[in-house]
Amino acid sequence: MTPDRTLPDWLQPLAYVLPSSHVFEGMRTVIAGNGVDWTSLVAAAVLDLAYAIAALWFFRRMLVAVRRSGGLSRFAE
């Protein structure tokens, strides 16, 4: 089950890449009495992990760049 079945067509791609959409879809399945939707839970966990890795990669790149430019040491004076 995808998290985009109640949204307009133009918002469906955005909902598919948000972990919260998968979590809410899984809760909707539980409330309907159909048990835990493990597919939605795993999709949310994978997306969370991917976003955390991307954020750490970006942070590392920015840290290296600011160290090279001396941007942090200018404020220490």
Structural description of this entry:
- The protein has one domain (9-76).
- The protein is 65% helix and 0% strand.
- The chain contains 3 helices and no strands.
- The chain has helices at 12-16, 19-31, 38-69.
- The longest helix has 32 residues, at 38-69.
- The radius of gyration is 19 Å and the shape is elongated.
- The model has no long low-confidence stretch (mean pLDDT 87).
Largest sheet entry: none
Please tally the helical runs, counting DSSP H or I stretches of 4 or more residues.
3
> Averaged pLDDT, please?
87
Helix/strand order, N-terminal first: HHH
The beta-strand count equals: 0
What's the Cα radius of gyration?
19 Å
What structural category characterises the helix and strand content? Answer: mainly alpha
Shape: elongated
Question: Which stretches of 5+ consecutive residues score pLDDT under 50?
Answer: none
Could you name the key traits of this structure?
0% strand; mainly alpha; 77 residues
